């Protein structure tokens, strides 16, 4: 009701101005028609009657009573001065309009004052009409027609003013209501979501967990060799939420390149055929795609393959539909919840970055300038004081540098075009250049993408590991390995610093945060010493879905790694859209 109160205050000045203008008008009419004495008398009485409406326009009782008194004075003054020329009737516009404006204000159900406001305008119009027309017989016969016409015109103008005031108030209230409607709906939905989220078991709002259950159910269908749950991502691509296969499967994530995926998504009907659903499948296969549809919306696809070309007949398709029935709504709820949480987290990180930049960062910068000014005016003999100020200036510089790193970390996000490996590499390069670390990158990212929320968590884990190496390990070299081949992913950060024994308490807290993030995305976090000194932090998703191992990669810091690193620097690094690539700095 704060905006309604503001609207009331905005109306007060025009309402007073309207009364003043009409009062001056009837005073001039009265002076010209009935003389100064009578006009002054009735104008004084009218001013007293209008006083509550001017001084207390929002009072529940006095304001309506004042308007009623104004109408009564206008009717009685008109009749007492002979009916014609009806000099006081124009003032009826003021009480009618203010009563209608007040009646249009929203009120609570069952509020008697609200009902009183609602019936105020018609009651005033009825009172004026009855009072004026009831006295028509007392007017002389030759003036009676003119009197009735004049009274009717005055009432019509007053009624028109009332309708206009009522419409003005209603339109302004409706505009305010519509401006707040999205927030009201969002608050109601979020409140329901919070209640539901508290009632459900924790795993039921995890898209990865629900997708794993769907895959396990589909894998029990006779003849199924490989199965996966695919969900929509940005850029008209799909992401692999979970899969089941004895060997690594490179699922097709572009519906435009596979007719079964495209038809199942658009038509919302199961699609069976012998078109492979993965790029890695060789030989004849039987393929089946079951759309996950919730309330008419396609949420995801269950992709199933068999090495037997005749595996999926009508009975198998019916069995697959029955086994996945009811899972679509659960998956959509989990995906929506994850999306809302991701948006809220991103917004909060941006807000914190703004507050740090506009608050403490500016204050620290001013403190540094103050120290510089103090050092400039020190006398030459104040050597000890100058040394203390130099130490203090160095500490302020260190804090400003830490704040810059924190702001960069808060604002860093995975670009939906660049990918996870690119985001981690950019962060490692920036931190390495600022902290004097030699950064060695090994990037291997395919064309498929992880869910956005999973990529965000992996980026934060990598950032925390790199930050620990910069702040606590006192390292000289940093090796970052990023292998993304959904659903399998491995991110590894290795430094040659002083190892786990040298971690500060805040570094230990960072390790705990990384462990929580890895658990949230159903990944495994490994923290181990690196020989001859240093620490390795590795997070792995879906280790069972790891691609067929190539020749074993050299360990960070080894001679083989150094040789490969030198070889990579001889040619520009590149990361292809499909398949593996290597890059180094």
From TrEMBL:
Histidine kinase/HSP90-like ATPase domain residues: 453-545
InterPro entries: GAF, GAF-like_dom_sf, HATPase_C_sf, HATPase_dom, Sensor_HK_TwoCompSys, Sig_transdc_His_kin_sub3_dim/P
A Pfam family that the UniProt record links to this protein: GAF_3
UniProt region (Disordered), positions on chain: 545-585
Regions of compositional bias (Low complexity) in chain numbering: 545-564
Keyword Acyltransferase: no
Spans traversing the lipid bilayer: 12-33, 39-56, 68-88, 146-168
Extent of Basic and acidic residues compositional bias: 565-585
Keywords: Kinase, Membrane, Transferase, Transmembrane, Transmembrane helix, Two-component regulatory system
Name of the protein in question: GAF domain-containing sensor histidine kinase
Source organism of this protein record: Glycomyces mayteni
Taxonomic lineage from the root: Bacteria, Bacillati, Actinomycetota, Actinomycetes, Glycomycetales
């Amino acid at each position: 009701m704060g905006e309604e109160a503001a609207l009331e205050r905005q109306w007060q000045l025009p309402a007073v101005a309207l009364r003043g203008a009409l009062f001056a008008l009837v005073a001039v009419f009265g002076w010209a028609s009935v003389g100064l004495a009578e006009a002054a008398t009735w104008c004084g009485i009218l001013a007293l009657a209008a006083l509550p409406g001017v001084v207390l326009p929002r009072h529940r009782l006095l304001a309506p009573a004042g308007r009623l008194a104004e109408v009564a004075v206008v009717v009685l003054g008109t009749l007492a001065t002979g009916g014609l020329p009806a000099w006081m009737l124009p003032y009826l516009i003021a009480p009618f309009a203010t009563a209608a404006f007040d009646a249009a204000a929203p009120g609570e159900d069952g509020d008697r004052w609200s009902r009183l406001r609602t019936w105020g305008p018609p009651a005033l119009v009825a009172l004026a009409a009855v009072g004026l027309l009831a006295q028509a017989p007392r007017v002389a016969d030759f003036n009676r027609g003119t009197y009735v016409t004049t009274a009717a015109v005055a009432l019509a103008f007053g009624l028109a003013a009332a309708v206009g005031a009522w419409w003005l108030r209603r339109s302004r209230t409706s505009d305010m209501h519509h401006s707040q409607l999205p927030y009201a709906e969002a608050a109601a939905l979020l409140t329901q979501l919070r209640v539901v989220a508290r009632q459900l078991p924790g795993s039921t709002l995890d898209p990865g967990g629900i997708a794993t259950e769907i895959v396990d159910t589909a894998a029990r269908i006779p003849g199924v060799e490989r199965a996966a749950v695919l969900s929509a991502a940005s850029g008209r691509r799909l992401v692999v939420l979970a899969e089941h296969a004895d060997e690594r499967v490179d699922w097709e994530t572009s519906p435009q390149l596979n007719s079964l995926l495209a038809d199942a998504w658009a038509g919302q009907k199961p699609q069976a055929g012998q078109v492979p659903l993965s790029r890695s499948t060789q030989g004849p296969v039987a393929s089946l795609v079951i759309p996950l549809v919730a309330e008419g919306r396609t949420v995801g696809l269950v992709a199933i393959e068999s090495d037997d070309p005749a595996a999926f007949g009508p009975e198998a398709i019916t069995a697959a539909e029955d086994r996945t029935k009811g899972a679509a709504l659960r998956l959509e709820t989990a995906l929506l919840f994850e999306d809302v949480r991701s948006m809220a987290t991103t917004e909060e990180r941006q807000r914190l970055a703004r507050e740090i930049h506009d608050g403490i960062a500016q204050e620290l910068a001013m403190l540094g300038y103050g120290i510089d000014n103090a050092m400039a005016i020190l006398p030459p003999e104040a050597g000890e004081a100058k040394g203390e100020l130099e130490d203090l200036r160095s500490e302020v510089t260190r804090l400003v540098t830490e704040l810059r790193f924190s702001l960069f970390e808060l604002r860093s996000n995975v670009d939906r075009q660049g990918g996870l490996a690119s985001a981690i590499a950019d962060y490692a390069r920036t931190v390495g250049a600022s902290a004097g670390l030699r950064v060695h990158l090994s990037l291997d990212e395919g064309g498929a993408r992880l869910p956005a929320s999973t990529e965000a968590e992996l980026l934060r884990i990598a950032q925390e590991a790199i930050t620990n190496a910069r702040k606590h390990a006192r390292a000289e070299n940093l090796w970052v390995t990023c292998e993304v081949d959904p659903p399998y992913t491995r991110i590894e950060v290795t430094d040659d610093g002083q190892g786990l024994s040298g971690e500060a308490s805040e570094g230990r807290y960072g390790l705990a945060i990384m462990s929580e993030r890895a658990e949230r995305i159903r990944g495994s976090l490994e923290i181990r010493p690196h020989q001859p000194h240093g620490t390795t932090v590795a997070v792995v998703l879906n280790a069972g879905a790891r691609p067929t191992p190539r020749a074993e990669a050299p360990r960070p810091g080894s001679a083989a790694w150094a040789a490969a690193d030198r070889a990579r620097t001889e040619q520009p690094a590149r990361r292809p859209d499909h398949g593996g690539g290597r890059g180094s700095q």
